[in-house]
Protein backbone atom coordinates (compact mmCIF):
# COMPACT_ATOMS: atom_id res chain seq x y z
CA UNK A 1 0.00 0.00 0.00
CA UNK A 2 2.82 2.39 0.79
CA UNK A 3 5.16 4.23 -1.42
CA UNK A 4 8.09 5.70 0.33
CA UNK A 5 11.82 5.61 -0.09
CA UNK A 6 12.93 3.44 2.79
CA UNK A 7 16.10 1.73 3.88
CA UNK A 8 14.36 -0.34 6.58
CA UNK A 9 14.93 -4.03 6.53
CA UNK A 10 11.91 -6.32 6.73
CA UNK A 11 10.20 -5.73 10.09
CA UNK A 12 10.81 -8.51 12.57
CA UNK A 13 8.09 -10.89 13.60
CA UNK A 14 7.64 -9.14 16.97
CA UNK A 15 7.29 -5.75 15.29
CA UNK A 16 4.74 -7.25 12.95
CA UNK A 17 2.69 -8.58 15.87
CA UNK A 18 2.93 -5.24 17.63
CA UNK A 19 1.74 -3.45 14.50
CA UNK A 20 -1.16 -5.87 13.98
CA UNK A 21 -2.30 -5.61 17.62
CA UNK A 22 -2.14 -1.84 17.75
CA UNK A 23 -4.11 -1.64 14.48
CA UNK A 24 -6.69 -4.07 15.82
CA UNK A 25 -7.16 -2.12 19.06
CA UNK A 26 -7.48 1.15 17.15
CA UNK A 27 -10.05 -0.38 14.78
CA UNK A 28 -12.13 -1.77 17.63
CA UNK A 29 -12.12 1.60 19.42
CA UNK A 30 -13.12 3.31 16.16
CA UNK A 31 -15.95 0.85 15.55
CA UNK A 32 -17.31 0.51 19.09
CA UNK A 33 -16.48 3.83 20.77
CA UNK A 34 -16.90 4.61 23.56
CA UNK A 35 -15.61 1.22 24.68
CA UNK A 36 -14.20 0.21 28.06
CA UNK A 37 -10.79 -1.44 28.38
CA UNK A 38 -12.47 -4.64 29.61
CA UNK A 39 -14.80 -4.83 26.61
CA UNK A 40 -11.84 -4.04 24.35
CA UNK A 41 -9.82 -6.87 25.89
CA UNK A 42 -12.65 -9.32 25.17
CA UNK A 43 -13.22 -8.17 21.61
CA UNK A 44 -9.51 -8.07 20.75
CA UNK A 45 -8.83 -11.34 22.58
CA UNK A 46 -5.78 -9.72 24.12
CA UNK A 47 -4.79 -9.83 27.81
CA UNK A 48 -5.89 -6.80 29.90
CA UNK A 49 -2.23 -5.94 30.51
CA UNK A 50 -1.60 -5.72 26.76
CA UNK A 51 -4.69 -3.55 26.29
CA UNK A 52 -3.51 -1.21 29.06
CA UNK A 53 -0.10 -0.90 27.43
CA UNK A 54 -1.38 -0.36 23.88
CA UNK A 55 -4.09 2.12 24.86
CA UNK A 56 -1.55 4.04 26.98
CA UNK A 57 0.67 4.41 23.91
CA UNK A 58 -2.27 5.51 21.76
CA UNK A 59 -3.39 8.03 24.40
CA UNK A 60 0.17 9.41 24.75
CA UNK A 61 0.27 9.90 20.98
CA UNK A 62 -3.10 11.75 21.10
CA UNK A 63 -4.67 9.18 18.79
CA UNK A 64 -7.13 7.92 21.41
CA UNK A 65 -8.70 9.65 24.40
CA UNK A 66 -10.65 8.71 27.49
CA UNK A 67 -14.27 9.66 27.84
CA UNK A 68 -16.99 9.15 30.43
CA UNK A 69 -19.66 6.63 29.50
CA UNK A 70 -23.25 7.79 29.66
CA UNK A 71 -24.10 4.56 31.47
CA UNK A 72 -23.16 4.21 35.14
CA UNK A 73 -20.48 1.77 36.16
CA UNK A 74 -19.36 0.41 39.49
CA UNK A 75 -20.94 2.19 42.55
CA UNK A 76 -22.81 4.62 40.36
CA UNK A 77 -19.72 6.32 39.02
CA UNK A 78 -19.64 7.05 35.27
CA UNK A 79 -17.65 4.35 33.47
CA UNK A 80 -14.52 5.34 31.58
CA UNK A 81 -14.39 4.45 27.90
CA UNK A 82 -12.04 5.09 25.04
CA UNK A 83 -12.69 6.92 21.80
CA UNK A 84 -10.73 8.09 18.78
CA UNK A 85 -8.97 11.44 19.16
CA UNK A 86 -9.10 12.88 15.67
CA UNK A 87 -8.61 16.52 16.61
CA UNK A 88 -5.84 18.23 14.69
CA UNK A 89 -4.92 15.11 12.66
CA UNK A 90 -5.59 15.68 9.01
CA UNK A 91 -4.87 14.04 5.71
CA UNK A 92 -5.29 15.00 2.10
CA UNK A 93 -7.45 12.94 -0.28
CA UNK A 94 -7.10 13.44 -4.01
CA UNK A 95 -9.18 12.00 -6.79
CA UNK A 96 -7.75 12.25 -10.30
CA UNK A 97 -10.66 12.54 -12.73
CA UNK A 98 -10.57 12.99 -16.46
CA UNK A 99 -9.64 16.67 -16.75
CA UNK A 100 -9.96 17.58 -13.08
CA UNK A 101 -8.63 16.97 -9.59
CA UNK A 102 -10.88 16.76 -6.54
CA UNK A 103 -8.87 17.62 -3.44
CA UNK A 104 -10.32 17.11 0.01
CA UNK A 105 -8.91 17.75 3.46
CA UNK A 106 -10.24 15.29 6.05
CA UNK A 107 -9.67 14.60 9.72
CA UNK A 108 -8.66 11.22 11.10
CA UNK A 109 -12.32 10.22 11.46
CA UNK A 110 -12.69 10.83 7.69
CA UNK A 111 -14.88 13.93 8.23
CA UNK A 112 -14.49 16.46 5.44
CA UNK A 113 -12.84 19.75 6.46
CA UNK A 114 -12.60 21.33 3.00
CA UNK A 115 -12.94 20.11 -0.58
CA UNK A 116 -12.80 21.58 -4.05
CA UNK A 117 -12.37 20.60 -7.68
CA UNK A 118 -9.80 22.12 -10.03
CA UNK A 119 -9.27 21.76 -13.76
CA UNK A 120 -6.34 19.49 -14.54
CA UNK A 121 -5.32 19.10 -18.15
CA UNK A 122 -1.81 17.88 -18.83
CA UNK A 123 -0.20 15.57 -21.31
CA UNK A 124 3.42 14.76 -20.65
CA UNK A 125 4.94 13.12 -17.57
CA UNK A 126 6.87 16.17 -16.41
CA UNK A 127 4.04 18.64 -16.66
CA UNK A 128 1.78 16.07 -14.94
CA UNK A 129 3.93 16.05 -11.79
CA UNK A 130 4.59 19.81 -11.76
CA UNK A 131 0.98 20.66 -12.43
CA UNK A 132 -0.15 18.17 -9.77
CA UNK A 133 2.12 19.80 -7.19
CA UNK A 134 0.82 23.26 -8.22
CA UNK A 135 -2.76 22.18 -7.63
CA UNK A 136 -1.91 20.95 -4.14
CA UNK A 137 -0.07 24.20 -3.34
CA UNK A 138 -3.09 26.18 -4.58
CA UNK A 139 -5.36 24.12 -2.36
CA UNK A 140 -3.17 24.78 0.70
CA UNK A 141 -3.16 28.50 -0.05
CA UNK A 142 -6.93 28.68 -0.33
CA UNK A 143 -7.57 26.60 2.78
CA UNK A 144 -4.67 27.74 4.95
CA UNK A 145 -6.97 28.66 7.83
CA UNK A 146 -8.22 25.06 8.07
CA UNK A 147 -4.82 23.39 8.00
CA UNK A 148 -3.59 21.62 11.11
CA UNK A 149 -1.35 18.58 11.34
CA UNK A 150 -1.12 16.98 7.90
CA UNK A 151 -0.16 13.31 8.20
CA UNK A 152 -0.57 11.60 4.84
CA UNK A 153 -1.75 12.01 1.24
CA UNK A 154 -4.00 9.46 -0.45
CA UNK A 155 -4.71 9.46 -4.19
CA UNK A 156 -7.12 7.47 -6.34
CA UNK A 157 -7.22 7.23 -10.13
CA UNK A 158 -8.95 4.94 -12.61
CA UNK A 159 -5.77 3.84 -14.32
CA UNK A 160 -3.24 1.06 -14.24
CA UNK A 161 -1.33 1.73 -11.03
CA UNK A 162 1.29 0.11 -8.83
CA UNK A 163 0.04 0.85 -5.30
CA UNK A 164 3.17 -0.54 -3.61
CA UNK A 165 5.56 1.78 -5.42
CA UNK A 166 3.14 4.64 -6.03
CA UNK A 167 3.48 4.56 -9.81
CA UNK A 168 0.82 5.36 -12.42
CA UNK A 169 1.75 3.08 -15.33
CA UNK A 170 -0.80 4.32 -17.84
CA UNK A 171 -4.15 6.04 -17.94
CA UNK A 172 -7.06 6.05 -20.39
CA UNK A 173 -7.51 9.78 -19.68
CA UNK A 174 -3.92 11.11 -19.68
CA UNK A 175 -1.11 10.54 -22.15
CA UNK A 176 1.43 9.49 -19.53
CA UNK A 177 3.69 6.54 -18.78
CA UNK A 178 5.15 5.21 -15.51
CA UNK A 179 4.71 8.36 -13.44
CA UNK A 180 6.45 8.04 -10.03
CA UNK A 181 3.78 10.09 -8.27
CA UNK A 182 4.33 8.52 -4.82
CA UNK A 183 8.09 9.11 -4.73
CA UNK A 184 7.70 12.63 -6.16
CA UNK A 185 5.15 13.72 -3.55
CA UNK A 186 6.99 12.01 -0.71
CA UNK A 187 10.14 13.88 -1.64
CA UNK A 188 8.29 17.20 -1.67
CA UNK A 189 6.25 16.74 1.49
CA UNK A 190 7.99 14.08 3.59
CA UNK A 191 4.58 12.47 4.11
CA UNK A 192 3.49 8.87 3.52
CA UNK A 193 1.78 8.71 0.11
CA UNK A 194 -0.93 6.20 -0.79
CA UNK A 195 -1.99 5.50 -4.36
CA UNK A 196 -4.84 3.16 -5.25
CA UNK A 197 -7.02 2.31 -8.22
CA UNK A 198 -10.35 4.14 -7.95
CA UNK A 199 -12.47 0.98 -8.02
CA UNK A 200 -10.35 -0.85 -5.44
CA UNK A 201 -10.47 2.16 -3.11
CA UNK A 202 -14.24 2.44 -3.64
CA UNK A 203 -14.67 -1.24 -2.71
CA UNK A 204 -12.66 -0.63 0.48
CA UNK A 205 -14.90 2.38 1.27
CA UNK A 206 -18.05 0.29 0.79
CA UNK A 207 -16.68 -2.44 3.04
CA UNK A 208 -15.69 0.02 5.78
CA UNK A 209 -18.62 2.44 5.82
CA UNK A 210 -21.05 1.53 3.06
CA UNK A 211 -23.30 -1.19 1.72
CA UNK A 212 -20.64 -3.89 2.25
CA UNK A 213 -20.16 -3.24 5.96
CA UNK A 214 -19.74 -6.44 8.02
CA UNK A 215 -19.37 -8.54 4.84
CA UNK A 216 -16.29 -10.73 4.61
CA UNK A 217 -16.96 -11.82 1.03
CA UNK A 218 -18.05 -9.17 -1.37
CA UNK A 219 -18.21 -8.47 -5.09
CA UNK A 220 -18.46 -4.82 -6.02
CA UNK A 221 -19.33 -4.42 -9.69
CA UNK A 222 -18.88 -1.01 -11.29
CA UNK A 223 -20.78 -0.33 -14.52
CA UNK A 224 -19.86 3.10 -15.75
CA UNK A 225 -17.87 4.36 -18.74
CA UNK A 226 -15.57 1.53 -17.71
CA UNK A 227 -16.68 -1.80 -16.30
CA UNK A 228 -14.65 -3.28 -13.47
CA UNK A 229 -14.98 -4.94 -10.12
CA UNK A 230 -13.52 -5.01 -6.65
CA UNK A 231 -13.58 -8.34 -4.83
CA UNK A 232 -13.20 -8.91 -1.13
CA UNK A 233 -12.61 -12.45 0.01
CA UNK A 234 -12.26 -13.45 3.68
CA UNK A 235 -12.03 -9.76 4.57
CA UNK A 236 -9.13 -9.09 2.19
CA UNK A 237 -9.28 -7.09 -1.03
CA UNK A 238 -8.13 -9.14 -3.99
CA UNK A 239 -5.23 -7.53 -5.88
CA UNK A 240 -5.05 -4.56 -3.46
CA UNK A 241 -1.28 -4.83 -3.45
CA UNK A 242 -0.51 -5.28 -7.12
CA UNK A 243 -1.13 -3.65 -10.44
CA UNK A 244 -4.65 -4.66 -11.18
CA UNK A 245 -8.33 -4.58 -10.50
CA UNK A 246 -10.61 -7.46 -11.38
CA UNK A 247 -10.89 -6.91 -15.13
CA UNK A 248 -14.40 -8.20 -15.44
CA UNK A 249 -15.05 -5.65 -18.20
CA UNK A 250 -12.59 -7.43 -20.48
CA UNK A 251 -14.14 -10.87 -20.35
CA UNK A 252 -15.44 -11.71 -23.81
CA UNK A 253 -19.22 -11.82 -23.99
CA UNK A 254 -19.75 -11.48 -27.76
CA UNK A 255 -17.20 -13.24 -30.04
CA UNK A 256 -18.70 -11.44 -33.05
CA UNK A 257 -18.86 -8.10 -31.31
CA UNK A 258 -17.08 -4.76 -31.46
CA UNK A 259 -13.32 -4.38 -31.08
CA UNK A 260 -12.24 -3.25 -27.61
CA UNK A 261 -9.40 -0.81 -26.81
CA UNK A 262 -7.69 -3.66 -24.94
CA UNK A 263 -7.09 -5.36 -28.29
CA UNK A 264 -9.72 -8.10 -28.04
CA UNK A 265 -13.21 -8.37 -29.52
CA UNK A 266 -16.60 -8.17 -27.82
CA UNK A 267 -15.51 -7.55 -24.22
CA UNK A 268 -18.28 -7.04 -21.63
CA UNK A 269 -17.34 -3.34 -21.53
CA UNK A 270 -18.05 -2.96 -25.28
CA UNK A 271 -21.60 -4.16 -24.60
CA UNK A 272 -22.58 -2.88 -21.14
CA UNK A 273 -20.34 0.21 -20.78
CA UNK A 274 -22.54 3.32 -20.62
CA UNK A 275 -21.53 4.59 -24.06
CA UNK A 276 -22.31 1.37 -25.98
CA UNK A 277 -25.61 1.06 -24.08
CA UNK A 278 -26.71 4.48 -25.34
CA UNK A 279 -25.49 3.77 -28.88
CA UNK A 280 -27.44 0.53 -28.93
CA UNK A 281 -30.56 2.23 -27.56
CA UNK A 282 -30.47 4.86 -30.32
CA UNK A 283 -30.08 2.17 -32.94
CA UNK A 284 -32.91 0.00 -31.61
CA UNK A 285 -35.23 2.98 -31.26
CA UNK A 286 -35.20 3.47 -35.06
CA UNK A 287 -37.23 0.30 -35.56
CA UNK A 288 -39.50 1.02 -32.58
CA UNK A 289 -41.27 4.30 -33.42
CA UNK A 290 -43.65 3.84 -30.46
CA UNK A 291 -40.78 3.96 -27.94
CA UNK A 292 -40.41 7.00 -25.71
CA UNK A 293 -36.67 6.84 -26.45
CA UNK A 294 -37.44 8.49 -29.82
CA UNK A 295 -39.20 11.32 -28.03
CA UNK A 296 -36.15 11.84 -25.79
CA UNK A 297 -33.75 11.80 -28.75
CA UNK A 298 -35.80 14.35 -30.69
CA UNK A 299 -36.77 16.46 -27.69
CA UNK A 300 -34.37 19.29 -28.39
CA UNK A 301 -35.56 19.55 -31.97
CA UNK A 302 -32.22 18.48 -33.36
CA UNK A 303 -30.84 15.06 -32.57
CA UNK A 304 -27.54 15.57 -30.81
CA UNK A 305 -25.58 12.80 -29.17
CA UNK A 306 -26.14 14.17 -25.65
CA UNK A 307 -29.93 14.13 -25.81
CA UNK A 308 -30.21 10.54 -24.59
CA UNK A 309 -28.54 9.85 -21.24
CA UNK A 310 -28.45 6.87 -18.88
CA UNK A 311 -30.70 8.85 -16.52
CA UNK A 312 -33.32 9.49 -19.20
CA UNK A 313 -33.12 5.87 -20.39
CA UNK A 314 -33.70 4.64 -16.81
CA UNK A 315 -36.55 7.11 -16.39
CA UNK A 316 -38.21 5.82 -19.57
CA UNK A 317 -37.93 2.27 -18.20
CA UNK A 318 -39.37 3.33 -14.83
CA UNK A 319 -42.30 4.91 -16.68
CA UNK A 320 -42.99 1.62 -18.42
CA UNK A 321 -41.41 2.13 -21.84
CA UNK A 322 -41.09 -1.38 -23.27
CA UNK A 323 -37.89 -0.87 -25.27
CA UNK A 324 -36.07 0.89 -22.42
CA UNK A 325 -37.06 -1.95 -20.07
CA UNK A 326 -35.92 -4.59 -22.57
CA UNK A 327 -32.55 -2.88 -22.97
CA UNK A 328 -31.94 -2.73 -19.22
CA UNK A 329 -33.16 -6.29 -18.74
CA UNK A 330 -30.78 -7.40 -21.52
CA UNK A 331 -27.85 -5.63 -19.82
CA UNK A 332 -28.73 -7.43 -16.58
CA UNK A 333 -28.73 -10.80 -18.33
CA UNK A 334 -25.33 -10.22 -19.90
CA UNK A 335 -23.84 -9.08 -16.61
CA UNK A 336 -25.53 -11.97 -14.83
CA UNK A 337 -23.88 -14.55 -17.10
CA UNK A 338 -20.43 -13.29 -16.15
CA UNK A 339 -21.37 -12.78 -12.49
CA UNK A 340 -22.54 -16.41 -12.26
CA UNK A 341 -18.97 -17.53 -12.94
CA UNK A 342 -17.57 -15.07 -10.41
CA UNK A 343 -20.12 -16.25 -7.82
CA UNK A 344 -18.99 -19.85 -8.31
CA UNK A 345 -15.39 -18.85 -7.70
CA UNK A 346 -15.83 -16.49 -4.74
CA UNK A 347 -19.14 -17.48 -3.12
CA UNK A 348 -19.93 -13.91 -1.98
CA UNK A 349 -22.47 -12.94 0.66
CA UNK A 350 -23.37 -9.85 -1.28
CA UNK A 351 -22.99 -8.25 -4.70
CA UNK A 352 -22.83 -4.45 -4.75
CA UNK A 353 -23.65 -2.62 -7.94
CA UNK A 354 -22.09 0.82 -8.41
CA UNK A 355 -23.68 2.36 -11.49
CA UNK A 356 -25.99 5.11 -12.78
CA UNK A 357 -28.13 2.15 -13.96
CA UNK A 358 -29.13 1.64 -10.31
CA UNK A 359 -32.01 4.04 -10.99
CA UNK A 360 -33.66 1.14 -12.83
CA UNK A 361 -32.54 -1.50 -10.34
CA UNK A 362 -36.03 -3.04 -10.16
CA UNK A 363 -35.42 -4.28 -13.72
CA UNK A 364 -31.64 -4.70 -13.65
CA UNK A 365 -31.18 -6.71 -10.44
CA UNK A 366 -33.80 -9.44 -11.04
CA UNK A 367 -32.27 -10.02 -14.51
CA UNK A 368 -28.81 -10.45 -12.95
CA UNK A 369 -30.22 -12.61 -10.14
CA UNK A 370 -32.05 -14.88 -12.58
CA UNK A 371 -28.86 -15.62 -14.55
CA UNK A 372 -26.91 -16.30 -11.37
CA UNK A 373 -29.64 -18.65 -10.14
CA UNK A 374 -29.61 -20.53 -13.46
CA UNK A 375 -25.90 -20.70 -13.97
CA UNK A 376 -24.12 -21.00 -10.65
CA UNK A 377 -24.10 -23.59 -7.90
CA UNK A 378 -27.50 -23.40 -6.15
CA UNK A 379 -25.93 -23.46 -2.68
CA UNK A 380 -23.89 -20.39 -3.61
CA UNK A 381 -26.42 -18.46 -5.64
CA UNK A 382 -29.25 -18.76 -3.10
CA UNK A 383 -27.43 -16.86 -0.39
CA UNK A 384 -26.17 -13.93 -2.44
CA UNK A 385 -28.11 -10.69 -2.40
CA UNK A 386 -27.69 -7.85 -4.87
CA UNK A 387 -27.77 -4.32 -3.50
CA UNK A 388 -26.82 -0.84 -4.67
CA UNK A 389 -23.45 0.53 -3.59
CA UNK A 390 -23.91 3.30 -1.03
CA UNK A 391 -21.51 5.80 -2.60
CA UNK A 392 -21.27 6.99 -6.17
CA UNK A 393 -18.28 7.14 -8.47
CA UNK A 394 -17.14 10.61 -7.35
CA UNK A 395 -15.63 12.47 -4.41
CA UNK A 396 -12.70 11.63 -2.14
CA UNK A 397 -14.21 9.14 0.29
CA UNK A 398 -12.50 6.18 -1.47
CA UNK A 399 -9.13 7.89 -0.94
CA UNK A 400 -10.04 8.36 2.73
CA UNK A 401 -10.83 4.64 2.96
CA UNK A 402 -7.26 3.80 1.92
CA UNK A 403 -6.00 5.85 4.87
CA UNK A 404 -8.44 4.17 7.23
CA UNK A 405 -7.24 0.79 6.06
CA UNK A 406 -3.61 1.79 6.69
CA UNK A 407 -4.59 2.87 10.23
CA UNK A 408 -6.41 -0.41 10.87
CA UNK A 409 -3.44 -2.45 9.68
CA UNK A 410 -1.30 -0.55 12.22
CA UNK A 411 1.14 0.54 9.52
CA UNK A 412 0.24 4.23 9.47
CA UNK A 413 -0.44 4.30 13.24
CA UNK A 414 3.13 3.28 14.09
CA UNK A 415 4.37 5.98 11.76
CA UNK A 416 2.19 8.63 13.44
CA UNK A 417 3.27 7.47 16.90
CA UNK A 418 6.91 7.82 15.98
CA UNK A 419 6.09 11.42 15.05
ZN1 LIG B 1 -11.42 -5.35 -23.67
Automatic annotation (TrEMBL):
One of its GO terms (biological process) is regulation of DNA-templated transcription. Keywords: Carbohydrate metabolism, DNA-binding, Transcription, Transcription regulation. One of its GO terms (molecular function) is DNA binding. Belongs to the ROK (NagC/XylR) family. PANTHER family: BIFUNCTIONAL UDP-N-ACETYLGLUCOSAMINE 2-EPIMERASE_N-ACETYLMANNOSAMINE KINASE, ROK (REPRESSOR, ORF, KINASE) FAMILY. This is Transcriptional regulator.
Amino acid sequence: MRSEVSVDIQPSHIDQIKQTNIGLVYRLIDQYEPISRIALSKRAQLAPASITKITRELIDAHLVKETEFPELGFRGRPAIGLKIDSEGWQFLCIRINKGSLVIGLRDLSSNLVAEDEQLFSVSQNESFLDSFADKIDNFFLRHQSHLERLTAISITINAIVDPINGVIHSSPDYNVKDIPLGAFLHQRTGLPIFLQHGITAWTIAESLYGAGKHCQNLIHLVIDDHVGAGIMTAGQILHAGNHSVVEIGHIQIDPDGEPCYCGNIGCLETVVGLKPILEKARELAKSRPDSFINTIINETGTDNIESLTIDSLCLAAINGDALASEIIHGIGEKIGRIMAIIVNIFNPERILIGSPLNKAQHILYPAIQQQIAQRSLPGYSQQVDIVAAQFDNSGTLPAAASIKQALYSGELLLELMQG
